[in-house]
Amino acid sequence: MSPQEFQHLIAGVTAQLDGRPLDASLAAWLNATWPAGSTTFRELAQACRDGVAEGWLCNREAGGIRYGRIFKALPETHGFSVDVVAMQDIAGPHHVHPHGEIDLIMPLTEGATFDGHPAGWCVYGPGSAHRPTVANGRALVLYLLPQGAIEFTAT
């Protein structure tokens, strides 16, 4: 898997998200369309694991969290930026999602959760905020941010 192949894989997902409101109905749709264990979920999770192993994903580290933005918001990704983080039993920095955030949760330890969510998709609406938290082990989380918008706060 190369970064270009990863972008193509992501674009197949973001094409289905383009123009949709980021809300609970989108989370339900994502979890019904590409649930944990589905072919698309497995392909995305394997691509993320490969990218981390090859060093082109999560190539930075701060405070015990490995992270990295692999793509800025691009026309090819339908205006979504793409970040991947690797976390283990830790809370990350507080931030606000001006336009919302779509997360793909990929546990590396069975039972690991992200903000209390198991393997699958989580959607935060515009203006939402949180301290991203992985509990019960290790997980990779892929973040899709409309227009790449994120605001880190001091909270």
Written account of the structure:
The chain has 155 residues and is an alpha+beta fold. The chain has a single domain, classed as Jelly Rolls. Helix content is 26%, strand content 37%. It contains three helices and ten strands. The chain has helices at residues 3-17, 24-33, 39-54; strands at residues 60-62, 65-71, 80-91, 95-97, 101-107, 113-114, 120-124, 128-130, 133-146, 151-152. Strands 1, 2, 3, 5, 6, 7 and 9 form a seven-stranded antiparallel beta sheet that branches. It is globular and about 35 Å long. The protein starts with a helix and ends with a strand.
Q: What's this model, at a glance?
A:
26% of the residues lie in helices and 37% in strands. With 155 residues, it is an alpha+beta fold.
Number of strands: 10
Provide the CATH topology: Jelly Rolls
User: Helix fraction?
Assistant: 25-40%
Q: Sheet with the most strands?
A: 7 strands, antiparallel
Relevant terms:
Jelly Rolls, alpha+beta, 155 residues, globular, three-stranded antiparallel sheet
Helices and strands, with pairings:
Blueprint lengths: L2 H15 L6 H10 L5 H16 L5 E3 L2 E7 L8 E12 L3 E3 L3 E7 L5 E2 L5 E5 L3 E3 L2 E14 L4 E2 L3
Antiparallel strand pairs: 1-2, 2-3, 3-9, 4-8, 4-10, 5-7, 5-9, 6-9
